[in-house]
Amino acid sequence: MVSGSIIFEVETPLEAQRLWNAFVKDGHNLLPKQVPEVSSSITFIQGDGGVGSIRQINFTDAAEPELSFVKELVEEVDEEKFVYRYSHVEGGMFGKILASAKYEVKYTPKEEGGCVCSYVFHYETLPGVPHDESKEQGIKDKTTGLFKKVEAYLLTNPALYV
C-alpha cells in the first residue's frame, strides 16, 4: 500500500471567479462540450452539486468497461475561498488500483489579475500496488492539458462565465 500526494499549480490570466463559475458551477455542462475526447457526460446522480452530491463522469475512450466512469462525492464547496474538494467513491481506478482518491482544487486570485489554480490529489493504493511516478506525471499532464483547453475557450469567449 502506497500513500502519496500529487501537487501542482497552473497560472492563468483568467479571474478566479470566472474559473469557479466554469469548472465548479457549470463543469458538468462545459467539460463534455469542450473536452469531448475526455468525458462524454457528467451528471449529478444525487444532489445538485453541493456538499453531499454525487456526480458521475462518463469517459469517452476507456480501454475497459469498468474504467468508463467514475463517481465522485462532493465534500466541500467554498465559493468565498474558491475551494472545491471531492473524492472517488466508485469506478475508474477506485477499487482496482486505488483504495482512496481525494482531490482539492483551489483558485487563488493574484493581485495583478488572473489566478493560480492549485491541484492536490491524495491517494492510497491497494496493497501490493507499487508506486509509479510516470502515472503521477501523466495525471499532471492530462489535468493541465484539460485546463489549458478550457482556458483557451474562455479566453476566446470573454463574455462567458463572468
UniProtKB/TrEMBL annotation:
A single GO cellular-component term on record: cytoplasm
**What positions does the domain Bet v I/Major latex protein occupy?**
1-157
Q: Which superkingdom heads the taxonomic lineage of this protein's source?
A: Eukaryota
Q: Which GO terms describe its molecular function?
A: abscisic acid binding; protein phosphatase inhibitor activity; signaling receptor activity
- Do you know which SMART domains this protein is assigned to? Bet_v_1
Q: Quick one: a GO biological-process term for this protein?
A: abscisic acid-activated signaling pathway
Query: Entry's CDD domains?
Result: Bet_v1-like
Record InterPro entries: Bet_v_I/MLP, Bet_v_I_allergen, Plant_def-hormone_signal, START-like_dom_sf
> What SUPFAM superfamilies is this protein classified in?
Bet v1-like
Entry's family note: Belongs to the BetVI family.
What is the name listed in the Swiss-Prot or TrEMBL entry for this protein?
A: Bet v I/Major latex protein domain-containing protein
Native organism: Taxus chinensis
